[in-house]
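Pasting as-is:
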Amino acid sequence: MSETTFLGTEWHEKIFTGTWTDGAGQTYDVVEPATGETLGRLGAASAEDVNTAATRAAAAQKEWARTTPAERAAVLRRAGALWAEHAEELSGWIVREAGSIPAKAALEISSAEQICYESSALPSHPKGQVLTSNEPRWSFARRVPAGVVSVIAPFNFPLILGIRSVAPALALGNAVLLKPDPRTAVCAGVSIAKVFAEAGLPEGLLQVLPGGLDAGEAVVAAPEVSVISFTGSTAAGRKVGEAAGRLLKRCHLELGGNNALVVLPGAEVGPATSAGAFGSWMHQGQICMTTGRHLVHESIVDDYVEQLAERARNLPVGDPATEEVAIGPIIDDKQRTHVRDILDKATADGARLVAGGPGEGAFVPPTVLTDLSPSNPAWTQEIFGPVAPVATFATLEEAAEMVNASEYGLSLGILGDVGMAMELADLVDTGKVHINEQTVSDEANVPFGGMKDSGNGSRFGGAEANIEAFTETQWVTMRSSIAPYPF
């Protein structure tokens, strides 16, 4: 994978600070999760690297904020075109480095393209209000760039979950420190740096800084940083939020989920299990919006479990880079151990394993569990693996109580009668409701976020949310002459 035509080899053992350079931190291997093969070697940023990058970014940002909307828009449009132009190569990295099947990788590339195009409209979007005043003056509120934005992105949908903040932040006149997950820092770090450099983004506005805990703490604490955009686990998000609060910085958190799919009485079981299978097993269940709980009406639950288990048994599992599979590898040993530990605890607590199981090596097969108690860890925790726990309900009110019993509130799918689904939608606390769709869904122009432990609201996507996230409000008044004062 090192001798590629677009990414080249200049990034080997480097970090990106406007150019590829040696960092003060160590270097590390980029590993393919399906095989353990080393795909390359990257530099790991240290806290010193981050602080230097933040200073450089702040200096570059001032000039960038003064560029015309047309100039910034042109960079974003060129970036969008580059994702499409180099889709085959860049999606190949997502397959190998993130363990994604080709269709999922293609979705990420297409989404990156669309996010850049959506963001290209932001520079010319209206950004202010004319306000009334009791004084003889004009009064305005205008949006100005926040300054330096730190973006911390996870491994699972690494490209989308990084560029959805990088692109709008740049478009609105900011500089960006991007800390991709080290496990996916080529497909979601090197690729972003290369695309924007080729698109004509001035040097210093984007810094790509994969690294460990010290780098993560530094991209939050650096004095030049005014906004942090974090996507990841709830536990890590709490720490980021606590640090940002102490430092009086704005922090946008998109965190975990244990999302429910409610299958209503009368729903057609075949299509419902297809939706449920996709929701639970897409990208091995390593998605914040994954269907983590199947709530199926008691009148159809037996048929649902039977058909869902049959789908599980027929989905091929293997290396997506060399085989036609539906289920690829879990990202690393730590995550595989986590998934298998929950499965062990779930069955020890009385859950029945209908299909699948812990699997071997890098792979966990699609799994179906039933007979779960309300406190079973497979029901209450975010597994981040290809596991579909199924429980039953009798009334709409009971379904709503079961949905809301989770501390998370990210996404909900409801399958069946639309009128009944609308009633249920009014009873639940969640950031997204998808009627007659499963729980995993996103678009470049849609405000995205969750409630409760899933984050602090919709902070990504769509002009309104992006402008709110990555700009500050400034009040401006103007009189025809100097105002009189009693002093």
